[in-house]
Amino acid sequence: xxxxxxxxELRDRLELLLEEYxxxxxxxxxxxxxxxxxxxxVPNEIQCLxxxxxxxxxxxxxxxxxxxxxxxxxxxxxxNRETSLSSALDKIVANLPVRQYTYMPITxxxxxxxxxxxxxxxxxxxx
Length: 127
Known about the structure:
alpha+beta; 2 helices; 7 strands; 37% strand
């Protein structure tokens, strides 16, 4: 199986990319979290959640190979009502293979959020 981006690599890259925007959990840890399990608490600024299991579509190739057209799912949430996700989104889009993102503005009932799909195709060799 070939893989272009591992989950730990993606987490580390996001932590570096978003360093100036990320909030921190009460323990002091930067708010980039791989789910499940759920994060330890709510940070004071932006949180980036990475879905542990990517979304994927499998296509069959020749010689028993399969192509997994997969995407890591990121959820950015801004817990600070005085700032915006705009700069953090721009930075992610400029530095990672983002296939698509959906933006959800702040409302009286919810925080500002964005759901991003980071493209990570994999070819799986037959047994």
